[in-house]
Amino acid sequence: MVRILTLETTCDETAAAVVTDQLEVLGAVVASQDELHHHFGGVVPEIASRAHVERILPVIHETLQRAGVELKDLDAVAIANRPGLSGSLLVGLMAAKTLALVHDLPLIAIDHLQAHIYACRIASGRNVFPCVGLIVSGGHSNLYRCRTALDFTPLGSTIDDAAGEAFDKVASMLGLPYPGGPAIERVAKQGNPQRFSLPRPLIGESQRLDFSFSGLKTAVRYELFGPGRPEMGAAAEIEPQLVADMAASFQAAVIDCLVAKSVAALHRTGASRLCVGGGVAANSCFREAMERASQENSFELFIPPLKLCTDNAVMGAIAIERYRAGLFESLDLDISAGLVR
Ligand code: KG4
Ligand code: ZN
After folding, report:
1. At 21, is the pLDDT very low, low, confident or very high (cuts 50, 70, 90)?
2. In the chain, is it the N or the C terminus that has fewer CB atoms within a 10 Å radius of its CB?
3. CB 297 within 8 A of CB 266
4. Is residue 278 within 8 Å of 222, Cβ to Cβ?
5. pLDDT-based confidence at 227, cuts 50/70/90?
6. Would strands 151-157 and 141-148 be described as parallel, antiparallel, or unpaired?
């Protein structure tokens, strides 16, 4: 049996897992930093990397203990080295390299976004390739053509804000807490999604598989405060029904864009499966809309349970595919903060 320790420190979760070549998860730990970033209304990179430094060793230790595995039993160590926050990525990379060097283990590099798609493979227990992959998180909104677990081609991405980032910023305008996605979903239940007719940017350009959420965010601001008026400090004065209606209208607009571009990507590639990852996939209206789209357009939809949608190291099991293919890295492996095209 092959056992790989996978590490994940791309953003603000410190996570580790031990996975096998049978895709069993022997042990996994996620240490969330939510409480550290909460009152800043977003992830503060400096705080995130320092927290990773504090947590990485206890997280690895706890993971090995849960897995009943010692370092000497491992066959490889894998690290998500792209994309993400530089300082955060470096902490995980240095930990992985040290383990590889000291215990003479092969080092495997993981693309964090590809790992999000692979979470569907793990959660379903089925082969999901070939497929279209959609990642919708606080930092990313990307579409991929995934021929195999080792062959991903980017189809499109956001040209400005990520979907989750737009949720977070609109929530802040509405006086709702961070993270904004769950807060918007909660109040939107009481809201009328038709009250405001907000734009669906790029939706008419069916040849283009990119997203844009910045203009939508500005449209919300203009509806609430008028053009050129500062929005901060005024949120408390917005009446609750207006907050609920705007949350519902905004949520519907984002979901329409995500569904339309995913369906267009499926048509473009001829794929019959859609694999979704990232925190926004926790949104129940999004899930329902995707389910409807999958029936109307006859594709198979894979969305993992929440704990595998948000950042975790279990999805790093994609490293097993690289292990089998003999794709190992040298100890001068670097990080890459941006998207690798
Ligand atoms: O994948 P994730 O946990 O972290 C990274 O960004 O890597 O995604 C977090 C994002 C946040 O922007 C949050 O507002 C959004 O996912 N989110 C949601 C929901 N839950 C989390 N967005 C919409 N509806 C939700 N229920
Ligand atoms: Zn992520």
Report:
1. very high
2. C
3. yes
4. no
5. confident
6. antiparallel
pLDDT of residue 341: 44
CATH number, domain 3-116+309-324, options 3.40.50.410, 3.30.420.40, 3.20.20.140, 3.20.20.370 = 3.30.420.40
Residue 33: other Cβ atoms inside 10 A: 21
For a ligand 1 pocket test, name from 12, 135, 280 the mutation site with the most ligand atoms within 8 angstroms of its C-beta: 280
Segments making up each domain of the chain, as ranges: 3-116+309-324, 129-306
Q: Whose CA is nearest to atom 14 of ligand 1?
A: 181
Q: Is the CB of 310 under 6 A from ligand 1?
A: yes
- Ligand 2 centroid–CA 240 distance in Å is 32
Cα–Cα dist 203/168, whole Å: 22
Domain 129-306 sits in CATH at 3.30.420.40
